[in-house]
Amino acid sequence: FATCAPAALARRTPARLLAQAGAMLQWLLIGGIGLLGVYIWQWSAMSLLLVWLAGIAVGIGSDFLKWVFMRARLIRQMDRFSDDQFVWAMVMAMQRNEPQIREDALHRHRPGLGLVLDLVFGTMAAILFALWFRHQGIDVIALVRDDIALQRALIAVAVAPLIGLVAGLASLAQSADAEIDYQAGGRGIGLFFVMFAFMFFSDGGDAVRALVVFINGAAVVVAVLAGLGLWIMARERDWLARHLGSG
């Protein structure tokens, strides 16, 4: 703890918290717009679902490219993340005068494992979605071909991560310590479990609408929880700064 704490504190800067607040607002914006689209603007629930699925697929593909081209840096970044996780678990325990920390705080994160989980579960979920679309008689190719607005939305979803990837490569070229936006490990598993939400619905149209509402509502909930998490992170940072200063 004495070895890792100063570096963990140095990495939890106001700029980093601000960046996470931006991500929180992004989730809130995405979920809020999706709910408004369904209930107020009468957007097609199927179009919103396809855009969401495309975003998941592009995100997994983007993480795969980062693993291919930035593997060594990702491993170093995850090592730092594992050290930081241990430090903040220790901070939480000391704040509460607890004699031990959570066992998972000692877990060493491996970026390759998260990517494998995304690819495996994402592929399984894609197959299940394809079978469901076929069972409901939904021709996804024809739907995309006939909807210009949907085509533009899908292009935007595909281009945005590529722009972020290029920007990330440029920042890494300038600084060896630049952080890579790598989120492998949650998309595929989340997509797989969302697929089972269809098991609770029988009618195709109602199922798509209900699933879209569920997804966007969950995004809003995630944003609210992330806001609470940011407040906790700021309090932990201030406590550790005082602790190290007194030491």
Give an overview in words:
The chain has 247 residues and is mostly helical. Helices cover 79% and strands 0% of the residues. It contains 9 helices and no strands. The protein is elongated, with a radius of gyration of 21 Å. The two termini are 13 Å apart. The model has no long low-confidence stretch (mean pLDDT 83).
- Strand tally is 0
Kindly name the structural category: mainly alpha
N-end to C-end Cα span? 13 Å
How large, in whole angstroms, is the Cα Rg?
21 Å
Helix amount = over 70%
Unreliable stretches covering 5 or more consecutive residues:
none
Largest β sheet strand count, sense and barrel closure = none
Q: Quick check: average pLDDT?
A: 83
Tally of helical segments: 9
Shape: elongated
Keyword list:
247 residues; mainly alpha; 79% helix; elongated
Q: In a few lines, what is going on in this structure?
A:
This protein has helices at 5-11, 14-39, 45-69, 71-95, 111-135, 140-146, 148-174, 187-195, 204-246. It has 9 helices and no strands.
